[in-house]
## 1
Amino acid sequence: MGSANRGNWASRLGFILAAAGSAIGLGNIWRFPYVTGKSGGGLFYLTYTVCVIVVGLPIMVAEVLLGRATQSSPIVAFRELSSRRSPWIGVGWMGVITGFLILSYYSVVAGWTVHYVVLAVRNSFVGQSADAIGALFGELVASPGANVGYHALFMGMTVLVVLGGVSAGIERWSRILMPALFLMLIGLMAYCFFLPGFGDAAAFVFAPHTTSFDASSVLKALGQAFYSLSLGMGAMLTYGSYLSRDTGIPKSSVWVAVLDSAIATLASLVVFPITFSFGMQAEAGPGLIFKSIPIAFSQMTGGYLLSIVFFVLIVFAALTSSISLQEVVTSSFIDLFGWGRRKVCLRTGAIIFVFGVPSALLGSEGFFGAGLQKLTGKNFFDWVDYITANWMLPLGGLLIAIFTGFVLERSLREEEFRRGTTWGAVYSVWLPLLRYVVPLAVAVVFAQSSGLLKLFGIDWGS
Ligand code: TRP
């Protein structure tokens, strides 16, 4: 099965860091704090953590297992494990499409972080007021030229890395960048610990109060878990396919989830103390980190250098994620059509760029920005984010869980789970979670958010 020369991770640690590199990205540092802020804090945090443990982890194990078993990209993996005409191949296709869509707007946000590197280098933060720093973000979002330009630049960087092949490149980068990001965040959190708003921030994140938490927040928590762990579209499957057959799966998956949650938590404990100390709103939305974090740097000794380092690290965190999105698209097309990596990368990268342009126009007065916003309450960017994270990823995860839990041949499933790990006994916990808890959780959340439950007279809120 699979084609030769696909490359392999050099070690188990290499896989963990690369998978963590995919998981840890803008989802942790940009998306998690602002979604938590909008959804009311503590209770959201708790719901999110439960989603990671009982829904996310079982699916991650399933994805890595399917990839390691077939040593193939998603579409081919489903074909090999079912049959040539099987509808399950559609799950692979949906994954490729979802990856395509996510990358198209992910690159826009990553472009903002590149812009913030430039601002940091130009010394635009030090000594500035909170209002002046907030205005910088407004200017960026309202400028179509800058948005499209940075989006192009970031897509170019992504394609460049994936062009060079994955294993050695990603693994080597991840080994340096992930620990560096971790240290930076710890250092920043130590600084934020002494801000007057730290206590309020910790209470906001950890105390399970119910302000602005409703049933739709559960959908968002589930969506965020899928998004942050890179689940539901075959990214972990693809990374699992570069794993040697004898490397164990469950323990590595737990590591990835723990690292991912740790970074999201740290990011919140940096963002919210600043938010509260400087009188900003936790519900500020997608601009939250861009308006808050530079304020800390503006006042800190050494803020100039640190702000550069920090935004460079976020760019790299985004890059280790975006390459996993691009890699799913790339490896699928290589396996399917037998095209060369170069041709696939350049073509798909260009198409993804073009599709991302409407998202890059989010702050404009035109149709894709203000127009759609007025009509539907969401601009194009918001729509792509909403549909992929809250609907497509959970749906993909649900189908992956059902396939692995019920369709995959029993002996193959169990043997694959147990090979290479000392945690074989966990199989009897994993399987029921995958078979019953995951489908139930996703189904209930879908029924609620599609308004189906209302038909039966059950209403949990908006
Ligand atoms: N997990 C990444 C983040 O938190 C984003 C990401 C990378 C992703 N690959 C993915 C999300 C695959 C969903 C699916 O930033």
## 2
Amino acid sequence: MTADDLSSLAISSGLKTRFVGQRVDYYPRLSSTMEVAREGVQQGAPEGTVIIADEQSAGKGRLNRVWLSPSGSVSLSIVLYPSMAYLPSFIMVASLAVVHSIWAVTGLCSHIKWPNDVLVNGKKVCGVLIESGVRGSSVDYAIIGIGLNVNLRASDFTDILPAATSLSDELGRDVSRLELLRCLLVKIENLYLSLPAGDSVYREWRNSLVTLGRKVRVSAGEAIYEGIAESVARDGSLLLRDLNGSLSQISAGDVSLQDINSEG
Ligand code: BT5
């Protein structure tokens, strides 16, 4: 088994989880792990099933944007069946697990930019996408999608420059994707299982946001907001204080940081 062997067996054997990653479907190349995970749900995929690809030909971001996922990156989706109460915390669980795993495996410090980016040195190294099927007040399924730039040269992909980086760009050497991935799956399960115990995931997520206290511009659909990112609510939405002092609660959008230490 090599450090970069991403076979199903290499990922799941001896993995210290109860369900996340106990079943792994590995593909050298596919369209999008989200698509394959959705099909898996329809066929009754067990909780914690992981779909992982070395390369995606049609990786997706939010609002159907393109997510570049060349060989050397890590693209995965995890199928879960949570109760409604935990759904808003999924973006927090996934982003924090990424931050913890990057630190544990590489020693690099990363931060979260609301709502779904993980940054190293101010550049995007990872994007998180949460999809769910909701019927009335119950959740049929949720899928956590994570795209991580591990061993690739961001400078080869002009579309995402200058805002993107990779772990290998930051470290000047390659990283074991297998080690990173196994670490990530354990952390996701632990954070997920800690949700019923209280607010700790929300509090840690809030403290990891580079966005708070900063002057920001948020585009949310047709609307543009400007002001200071004051806090985040427990449901993950951003609380923005505008120049007139009124507070807006924004559930989704794209943030650009406007102050001197601008990071995106
Ligand atoms: C995201 O969307 O950041 C969520 C990305 C989720 C990707 C994972 S990979 C596994 C799973 N399967 C999928 O098909 N998707 C998920 P968003 O916030 O909308 O950001 C998208 C924007 O990020 C694009 O419009 C580009 O500007 C930029 N971008 C695209 N590829 C990138 C990359 N590899 N690294 C950094 N930035 C990128």
## 3
Amino acid sequence: MTDRELVDQAIKMLDYSYVPYSKFPVGAALECADGSVFTGCNVENAAYGDTICAERTAVVKAVSEGHRDDFVRIAIAGHSADYCWPCGSCRQVLFEFAPDLEVLIAKEGGDFVKLSLRELLAHGFGPKALL
Ligand code: THU
């Protein structure tokens, strides 16, 4: 799958975002080594802190279906004028499973940039410190 195709899958997920409070939809598409893709959107809650981000929705879907050590790329999309940068919590959760992940970050219109998770979370704290 091309980067463009993965970003387009993340963009499609914007339609499913549940964002009555922020009105800021985010979509994600997480690709594994076998080619499977786990998508996600943000799901907000009246108790604001219980909101789950799009990236973490995708990670939880993947892990709960047996994928853990094989994340290759994630695409993240928003309707934002700037690139839809992942929040610190999502960077940390991604780092737990895939510190060498490639991250595609899109903005309104579909243009995207590609960075490594290590660039986005320099000197990250991960399981190696504890295991
Ligand atoms: N959001 C994400 O889904 N991913 C991020 O990495 C940044 C923030 C969501 C959470 C909330 O629903 C909305 O964007 C505004 O913060």
## 4
Amino acid sequence: MKKNFILSVLMVVGGMTASAQTYLNPNAPVEERVKDALGRMTTHEKIKLLHAQSKFTSAGVPRLGIRQLNMDDGPHGVREELEWNTWSPARWTNDSIVAFPSLTCLASTWNRDLSQAYGNAVSEEFAFRGKDIMLGPGVNIQRTPLNGRAFEYMGEDPFLAGEMVVPYIQSAQKNGVACCLKHFVLNDQETDRFGVNVNISERAMNEIYLAPFKRAVEKANVWTIMGSYNMWKGVHCCHNDELLNGILKKDWGWDGALVSDWGGTTNTMEAAMGGLDIEMGTYTDGKTKESDFGYDDYYLGNAFEKLIKEGKVPMSVLDEKASRVLRTIFRTAMNPQKVIGNQCSEAHYDVCRQIGEEGIVLLKNEKNILPLDIAKYKKYSNILVVGENATRSLTQGGGSSELKTLHDDSPLDALKRRYETMIDYAQGYYSGRAMYDHVDKLDPVKQAELKAEALEKAKSCDLIIFIGGLNKNTRQDCENGDRESYDLPYGQNELIAELAKIQKNIVVVTFGGNPYAMPWLKDVAGVVHCWYLGSEAGKSLVNVLSGVVNPSGKLPVTFAQKYEDYPYVKFGAEAYPGVNKQVYYKEDIFVGYRHFATNNVKPLFPFGYGLSYTTFAYGKPTVEKTGDAVTVSVTVTNTGKVAGKEVAQVYVTYPQMEQARPVKELKAFAKTPLLDPGESETLRMTIPMDDLAVYDEEGRGWDIAEGMYTFSVGTNVNDIKGKADVQIDM
Ligand code: GLC
């Protein structure tokens, strides 16, 4: 009897203890789980949370049953599994995935719903692979068309980048997978990325470069952010007190965990006091050889623990960091709502294809050479496809965003499926291997032979589809190096010009993350730019070329006629790529179209530009100020013969002010649903007053100017269909 009594008492106590283990209660609020877990941890266990325990994981608390954090690249899909401690592939046989289109392609859709679909699909693949943090998306600003990683980002305008990244983050995190928004901040070039110090005005910093990150914090509550390698005000951004503790955590009230870029941490005291929460990739970042340097040797490892034990850093600093990491663990790894996910499902391929189809931009379509629908292509007896990108894998290479895919549908395969025997192919040029930090020496004899073969075949065809552009090779669209020229590489310009002389029915299709020069533009009938389309590249491209899908993509960057037209170039090397690792953003807020439109520099193709197979008419826009917002309305009508989607863009012109402002700044946009011929849609776009605030350099704060504002509605920044004014008095 007595024994049973004691047993039942122990069970009750045990039960109370168990239920008192709030951190293990999946239904308890995250903050209570954090607090309870922290109170049970030793100092050493708190330290272990703050740094890597392998290439892509950081520790949990094994003794308490708190899970580790599994991280992985990248913004376009889940990277292949690497070995525990090295950059070498682990050679798994079940980690082939879907490569989704590049984020510049997503931005080019201007479609928030597709951004939501993207975040949902890609995070399902991360979840299925057991990952808790996906190392992406990226929203660095495309200030130079030479940036090797621009393809991973969302263009030159902070509002477009911010608006298009928010749905992606919201839907990914709804699945219990944390996004890791990168690279915070000013990682806008790859040249000298590990040590360049960016000199920039407070106004440009706030209005342009911080803005998309701030939008993601305020509207999507992104759970982790990756610090960038470069410096700001002479301090590395992975542990920059003013940037991380001041702006991100205090001013913006961000409660997530700041993750270093791999190898971005440089000293213990700065890492301790400068806002870093999880140190990754130190001494295993490829900057130095692998060594017997252990994970406890990390700056936030033993060295930090020593400072805590000596009282040189208060325990509160450690508790603050550990709380942020625990919060991330309970939001992801130990989140009962986290999805199982799936890999390579039809649904994922559909999302991939749709984003590609809506991200493709039709830049030129003379004599309606496109679409190549049955009424047209039956006229042609022989369609010649020329160019390496018709067959080359563009999902491999590029650096940390490279992917191992289950299958990639190439443009040539898709063209052959659609147009069958009419398709002939000539490679035309070659580019060597897509190797990280290695450029193959190309054989001029082989190049000449490939070119000669293409020119010979061109003589007997009646339509040419050239498929080229950039690729993921080093010094093209690839991490750790920038492009060395604004021109297309591998002799493509000469090849296109000579092909156009032989056959004037020529459509140029390009892939790439950046604008480039088109000296042959007047000699070709059609131009289509695709960014990178991922695993369904062939289907997306051929659906647009054939007219199955009417293109609706709009440029998220300005294509300049020539490199020298970009605003920073006139300031010399100091403005890019910098001198002695000091770079000065001398164009200030006049990035991209803000420069071109304000200074009447005619671009090759303006920001927001993209043609359709149909036409649209705009009604007169109206604007009304209601409470703390301005609403712009406009009716768009499909006046053509085929169904299509249109993106209406709203640019604001501020009242005259002391500080120079761009003549136009994007403040709203909306994409119509698919409109049938004759169908109209009235778009209502609301602009919160806060979005109209400008950064006052002197006052070091945001200000809403009083006066007459003009809202211009257009189909691109230079093609305005109507304007409306509204007086704003605060
Ligand atoms: C790289 C990149 C970063 C990536 C990380 C892990 O150096 O800068 O974007 O997520 O290391 O591969």
